Amino acid sequence: MGFRQTSLFTLFASLVGVAQPLVASEIIFGSLQFRATVGSMSRSAAYVSIMNHGGMADRLLDATSNLARKTELHLMEMDNGVIRMRPVKGGIDLPAGKTIHLAPGGYHVMLSGLNAPLTADRIFEITLVFQNAGEKTIKGIAMLPSDLKVGEHLKKHKHKHKHKHKHKTN
Length: 170
Ligand SMILES: [Cu+2]
What we know:
Elements: H1 3-19, E1 27-29, E2 32-35, E3 43-52, E4 58-64, E5 68-79, E6 82-87, E7 92-94, E8 99-102, E9 107-114, E10 123-130, E11 134-143
Parallel strand pairs: 2-11
Antiparallel strand pairs: 1-3, 2-3, 3-8, 3-9, 4-7, 4-10, 5-6, 5-9, 10-11
The protein binds copper (II) ion.
């Protein structure tokens, strides 16, 4: 998770904490991002960080959308040195006060059999289904893989900018 998302979470968390201290289940989302498709790609994925700011454990059970024939929670993991993806069975735990990250290389929302391309810079939406918080529909932007702001530790910092000032790479 980038610095900017972290500070947004902190901001939202403090606002919500002041306004609604007694809410049992309060879900806060980072920025939803879709992997933009190129050409006739029929599959894509969506990524988002999800914080449970409530006092009650919750669980992300499912994902739905009208973007693809099949929308499901997936996990990418190493299996004997081979990267595999599989549907998540039984949902993803979201303990009180914790954040889960749907990000490249891990959990993600898998979109299989896209109904239309996910063109870069366009806005799309998905619905996430929680055990306690219910259905939450969120919107996000489609970004080329090199622009995705999540899971940045998985790839090298590689830019093609032509301007001359230095990047802060931390
Ligand atoms: Cu997948």
